[in-house]
Every structure is written in structure tokens, then in C-alpha cells.
């Protein structure tokens, strides 16, 4: 609730409704309505669902069809609170940073007249809220996020190490909450998402718009040199020499680039920077929803 003021920063509400990208110039926003806007050449990052087969066959080059913006925008926020996300070395846990970013984005969508829903992946039963509009809906979302996170911490307190539950089950549940043309935003570090996650994500990206917030802790990107003890869910223990921070940093960017090629745009969220730095990232993400 305390992050709501950050979501109000930037353009005025009237401008935000019209503008397709952050900035001071008011433009007509394009979206996923039923009426076509125009047909143009394919460019990297375009949604494959909107390939115009007739223009492509006629010219021999890929073309996509764009549409007028839909007034009814439904967005489901998927927060990853599985055990691996309950980790952090600076400022906050990765799960907390994910919740902060999703709350900022949710407040922006609600202020713009959209409907916001929630799906939380955790070791126990998932938390689900169907998309609804207005301030009351976002109050319910923030309350559900806080409660789900408290439950996740309580479940891990003193519990033995266990394997990460797969993320694809919650992904399918989140998809069931969305109407045609809806939007799904996933906030996760994507540690061990499950064997079928990438395949399911690619299939869903052909039916709904999916955006990714890849959460990254400072320790993952710049680890102090040395050996680190570890314990695995199956009881095995040992020490490991982690890879260099530069390699981990490049790996995150390569992962985002790979998803972008599948039509899933995303941003990297550095946990230590805090909500003030997240706000412009969420504004940028909101512009492509």
C-alpha cells in the first residue's frame, strides 16, 4: 500500500491513457482490440499471434497486423514465493522485491482503468484472485500478497530443505483467470521452474501476452571470491566455487534475450536498488501491456 505514491509518478492520468510509451508526447495507444489498425513488416519482438498470413503470402515477407487498444485490460500478476525465492543478501529477499514490483505495476494498471488479478506460487496451496477493477481490487491484491508471503516464510521456518515445487502448475492456473487478449506478468528468478515450464510458457505466449520480471540478487551477479558451503534438498552437502559475477550477469541478459525472441518481453529487477528504481521499469513494462 505504501508504494502507491510511486505508481502515480510520471505522466498524468489523461496522458497515461493515451500514450503508448513513457514520455511527454501524447500518442494513440495500440493494443489487442478486435478492430485492425494497420499491417506492417515483422520486427524482432512482435507477437507471433498477429502474423498476417495474407500479406505474408502475397509479399513473401513476414507481416503483422496491429489493432486498436482494448478498453477492458485484464492483467494477472504471478508472484513466485517458492522456497528458493525466500533468499536475499542486500536490502530485501528476492520474493519481497518481486512483490514490490508487481504491486507498483498493479497500481498503475488499476489507475488506468484496468482489472488486476493475482496468482502466487508457493510450496503450499497457491493463492488466486480473479481480475477485478478499482482501488478495492488492488487493496485485495496487496493484502493477498502480504498474507501469502507471511505463510511462505512460516512454512519454511525450521522446515527441512526440500525440492522446489514446479512453477508450471501455477502458470496454468494463472492462464485460466485471463480472458482472451489478457496479460500475464511473472515476477520470479526462474530458479528450477520445472521441466515443462519453458514449453508451456512458449505455448501460452501464442494465446496471451506474457511479460517477465527477472529478479536478480546482488550475490548472483557479484559474488566475493571463495568457496561456499551448500546443502541440497536430498540431504547432500558440500562446498562449491561459484562462477564469476560477470558470467552470471551475462546469463541473465541472455535469458531475457531468449524469451524476447519468443515474444515474451522482460526486464531485470536488481533487488538491492529498491522500489524507487523499480518505478520507471514498471512504467516501461506497463507501456507494452
Provide an overview of this structure:
This protein has 289 residues and is an alpha/beta fold. The chain has ten helices and ten strands. The strands form three sheets. It has a six-stranded mixed sheet with strand order 5-4-3-6-7-10, sandwiched between helices. About 7% of the residues have low confidence.
Summary, kept brief:
By secondary structure, this protein is an alpha/beta fold. It is built from 10 helices and 10 strands. The strands form 3 sheets. It has a 6-stranded mixed sheet, with helices on both faces. Strands 1-2 form a two-stranded antiparallel ribbon. The protein has a two-stranded antiparallel ribbon with strand order 8-9.
Shape: globular
Q: What is the H/E string?
A: HHEHEEHEEHHEHEHEEHEH
Number of strands: 10
Oligomer: single chain
Biggest sheet features: 6 strands, mixed
Radius of gyration: 20 Å
Helical residues, percent: 25-40%
Classification by helices and strands: alpha/beta
Please give the alpha-carbon distance between the first and last residues: 22 Å
Poorly predicted runs: 10-22, 24-31
User: Averaging pLDDT over every residue, what do you get?
Assistant: 84
Number of helices: 10
For this entry, give a set of tags:
single chain, 289 residues, alpha/beta, 6-stranded mixed sheet, 10 strands, 37% helix, 23% strand, globular
Amino acid at each position: 500500500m505504501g508504494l502507491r505514491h510511486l505508481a502515480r509518478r510520471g505522466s498524468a492520468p489523461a496522458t497515461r491513457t493515451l500514450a503508448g510509451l513513457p514520455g511527454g508526447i501524447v500518442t494513440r495507444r495500440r493494443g489487442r482490440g478486435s478492430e485492425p489498425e494497420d499491417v506492417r513488416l515483422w520486427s524482432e519482438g512482435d507477437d507471433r499471434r498477429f502474423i498476417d498470413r495474407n500479406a505474408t503470402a502475397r509479399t513473401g515477407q513476414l507481416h503483422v497486423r496491429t489493432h486498436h487498444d482494448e478498453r477492458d485490460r485484464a492483467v494477472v500478476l504471478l508472484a513466485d514465493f517458492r522456497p528458493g525465492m525466500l533468499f536475499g543478501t542486500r536490502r530485501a529477499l528476492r520474493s519481497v522485491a518481486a512483490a514490490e514490483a508487481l504491486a507498483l505495476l498493479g497500481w498503475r494498471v488499476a489507475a488506468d482503468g484496468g482489472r488486476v488479478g493475482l496468482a502466487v506460487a508457493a510450496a503450499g496451496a497457491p493463492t488466486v484472485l480473479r481480475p477485478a477493477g478499482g482501488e478495492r481490487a488492488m487493496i485485495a491484491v496487496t493484502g493477498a500478497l502480504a498474507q501469502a508471503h507471511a505463510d511462505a516464510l512460516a512454512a519454511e521456518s525450521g522446515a527441512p530443505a526440500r525440492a522446489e515445487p514446479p512453477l508450471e502448475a501455477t502458470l496454468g492456473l494463472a492462464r485460466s483467470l485471463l480472458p482472451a487478449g489478457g496479460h500475464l506478468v511473472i515476477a520470479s528468478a526462474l530458479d528450477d521452474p520445472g521441466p515443462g515450464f519453458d514449453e508451456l510458457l512458449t505455448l501460452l505466449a501464442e494465446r496471451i501476452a506474457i511479460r517477465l520480471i527477472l529478479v536478480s540478487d546482488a550475490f548472483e551477479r557479484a559474488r566475493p571470491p571463495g568457496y561456499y558451503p551448500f546443502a541440497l534438498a536430498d540431504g547432500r552437502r558440500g562446498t562449491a566455487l561459484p562462477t564469476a559475477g560477470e558470467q552470471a550477469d551475462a546469463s541473465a541478459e541472455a535469458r531475457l534475450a531468449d524469451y524476447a525472441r519468443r515474444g515474451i518481453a522482460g526486464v531485470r529487477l536488481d533487488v538491492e536498488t529498491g522500489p524507487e528504481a523499480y518505478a520507471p521499469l514498471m512504467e516501461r513494462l506497463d507501456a507494452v501491456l
